[in-house]
Amino acid sequence: MEISKVYRRFIPQLLHMIVLPLFFFSFILIYRPFDAESLIGSEWFGVHLTILSCIILVSTIVTRLLYYFIPMRLNYVLYVFWCFAEMIFVSFFVALYMWLVLKKPAPYFEILASSVEVTVFTLVIPYAILALSLRVYEYHSLASNPDDNSNARIRFYDDKHNLKIVLTPASILYITAEENYVNIYYSDDNVVRNYVLRCTMKSIDDLCHENGLLRCHRSFFVNPRHIKSLRKDKDGFVRAELDISGVRHIPVSQRYYNRIVDLL
User: Fold this and answer.
1) Who's near 182: CB < 8 A, 6+ residues apart?
2) Is residue 149 one of the residues assigned to a domain?
3) What is the arithmetic mean of pLDDT over 3-28?
4) What is the C-alpha to C-alpha distance for residues 58 and 119, in angstroms, rounded to an integer?
5) Angle at 256 between CA 218 and CA 156, to 5 degrees
6) How far apart are the first and last CA of the chain?
7) 183-240 per-position pLDDT tens digit
8) Can you spell out the DSSP letters for 153-187?
9) pTM of the model
10) 138 pLDDT more than 50
11) What total number of domains does the chain contain?
């Protein structure tokens, strides 16, 4: 299942930037696990711990801004891998500080192994707390607004970013591509209408996905609410029959078939 858009908002990224270094500093200072004093040094322990926390702060700012600004399609499993990769990224710079500044008498990769152990096993706690908090927030948002999509509106812009048409997600039947245009087929008081919009399928991919429209073919998006049945034609191709008469049957390619079936 693709990760909820609440994980992509800026506030969760800001929370990661603040909570991770603060938790690291507090946890190591109070509990001093993994023989932290011998690793960091008992002399000037607080100073070095503060600098290491600042390194984690800067590293987390970099990774979280990348996560926020770079469009990525992640599911929950891939998001967990992203978080672990983030901790490994932080560990490289923590180890580099201990090797160059603290001048530990050991090879860099040996120090890196210790850095990964301390960083991962410490930061996995706030990562888990933040992830669960966002999941609970998402659950309560859906529970308190079960019909929030019923009054939503999809705003379609052309390739020059001019607003052209505003529709409710439920009214849209399907969208198909035709060269540099897309044809939006929607229901208006049970009358099927068509709007031609100058843009590409790729440019509206995220917009459609966020509003419950699914790609069912290289050139088609379909609204799963309106799918009445899936049938194979005489040539063996699967087509979706919609619940409004007079509408063409929508092709469903094998690549997207299982996802469509799971939602019916």
Assistant:
1) 175, 176, 196, 197, 199, 200, 201, 204
2) no
3) 91
4) 15
5) 55
6) 15
7) 999 988 778 899 999 998 888 888 888 888 888 888 999 998 888 888 887 777 888 8
8) -EEEE-TT--EEEEE-GGGEEEEEEETTEEEEEEE
9) 0.58
10) yes
11) 2
* Each residue's pLDDT tens digit, 20-57: 999 999 999 998 887 777 778 777 888 999 999 999 99
- Cβ-Cβ contacts under 8 Å for 153 (sequence gap 6 or more): 166, 167, 168
Q: Which domain holds residue 93?
A: 5-144
End-of-domain residue from the set 103, 125, 144: 144
Element containing residue 131 per DSSP (H, E): helix 108-144
Distances (CA, A) of 153 to 80, 140, 149, 169, 253: 32, 22, 8, 7, 28
pLDDT at residue 150 in the model:
47
- List strand residue ranges (DSSP E) for 83-242, in order: 154-157, 163-167, 172-178, 181-188, 191-198, 214-217, 220-222, 227-232, 238-242
